[in-house]
Design a protein that fits this description.
Elements (H helix, E strand, L loop, with lengths): L7 H15 L1 H48 L1
């Protein structure tokens, strides 16, 4: 028994049918595209982490400016 009642044989049959329907070249290209998409997503997350620090510091500065403006 495999994942949630799916046996290894059933997975192999589905994979064989996919290769027969799409061909190995098409499946390889789909895998490369999926890998590129995942790596691009990870890259944007890492880039976004640096940007979020800037946003937090800007929020702090704007809060200080508003508070100083209220005192005047």
């Amino acid at each position: 028994m495999g994942i949630s009642g799916i046996s290894v044989w059933q997975i192999l049959i589905v994979l064989m049918l996919a290769v027969l329907l799409f061909g190995s070249g098409k499946i390889r290209r789909m895998g490369e595209d999926l890998g590129g998409t995942i790596s691009g997503f990870r890259r944007s997350l890492r880039k976004g982490e640096g940007d979020s620090l800037d946003v937090d510091s800007q929020d702090d500065l704007s809060g200080k400016l508003i508070q100083s403006g209220e005192r005047q």
